[in-house]
Amino acid sequence: MLGISLPSQFEYRNGVLHVEGVSALKIARECGTPVYVYSTTAIAERFAGLEAGLSEVDHLICYALKANSNQSILKLLNGLGAGFDAVSGGEYARAIAAGAPGQKIVFSGVGKTESEMRSALEGGIRQFNVESEPELLLLNGLAASMDAKAPVAIRINPDIDAETHQKISTGMAENKFGVPIRRARHIYSRAAELPNIDIVGIDVHIGSQLQNLEPFRKAFSLIAELAAELRADGHAIKRIDLGGGLGIAYNSREETPICPEDYCEAIIETVGHLGCEIEIEPGRYIVGDAGILLSNVLYLKDGADRRFLVVDAAMNDLMRPAIYDAYHEIIPVSEPGPDQSPLSVDVVGPVCESSDTFAKQRLLPAIGAGDTVAFLSAGSYGSSMASEYNTRALVPEVLVNGEKYAVIRKRPTIKEIIDRDIVPAWL
Ligand SMILES: *Cc1c(COP(=O)(O)O)cnc(C)c1O
Predict the structure, then answer these.
(1) Is residue 116 within a helix (H) or strand (E), and if so which, with residue range?
(2) Are 172 and 159 in contact (CB under 8 A)?
(3) Is 67 in the pocket of ligand 1 (CB under 6 A)?
(4) Which of 148, 287, 366, 417 sits a CA distance of 20 to 30 A from 281?
């Protein structure tokens, strides 16, 4: 159908899209739309693939919570042996709540607050990926006041173009992230003088949704050289954290994602000889293709010179198209017949913004009001970025496992949303 290849665990059976053994139509009817649906098996498969690729080196896969931080998904990954990469105190607390030991949580981010650092030091932490000298000093002072030692890797900005969308590129000199690589030796020597800092390694993360291996190779090679220099300076570099960023194919007809085996091989080739424990922080790769967003078509509307497919999902539910011009495949949940001629439509949501557009002049099989569509590859940066803009209830989530499914986040009622506001007595 239109040459789209479906991700693993999603297929048409008897003319209806299924997630593992469960009909997407049944979920849409029973849970209402819009709704996110994830496949347990797809998540486990992706995780297992990376585990296998890195099996010959000491490693920990620290799942980046921000891609999708639902407790059920964290619990699933924790059960598979994952570590976690948190970028806020909230994410740290989510990982702990899902049963992760502090020793398997790394804390990244350019703006950690003192109270966030304190809760991580109290609850246990594998390492802080420190992004600046002022942060290092604050952490040292805090750890001293708690009579603790803070394990630290310094995040290095290698000034490498990840060749991805500018809003998710993080490893260039112009980006706010990390410490410039030419200042690395200086900051490590500062860190070594601080009594409550324990240097454990080096960290790098150059961006997200990478489609080429070359920027990874360049960055990892620079980090390997730096590790040798820092060791020569007398620092104990036990761990190398290579960040996340492994991309997926949103547009299966035009994009060829990096093969995960090649990615793992590049890691082993560039940093394997150091004898360090290797950490990676994949988010999107593990959950992106494992999730879809189901939405019902409200109207097929003829504009002056365009046709609009108005659906009940909107930019508040899936923000990526509005903020990154991101592409998501959109397919009907009922399999279209082979002789159906496609229509060119703009797929839009009900929110009062022109940026609430999921696709422009997209060729889709004839779909009309009442039909259900699925946005593919919506498992990452979908629900975790969702908001209640336009007082649209936060989109619910469903997890499928074989023949069964469970609601893993329910849709709040409008009353619950309104009741969160507090009206002062003087009004
Ligand atoms: C966002 C982020 C990740 C995850 O990126 P993906 O592209 O989802 O793999 C990993 N590490 C850090 C520091 C991040 O900010």
Answers:
(1) helix 114-123
(2) yes
(3) yes
(4) 148
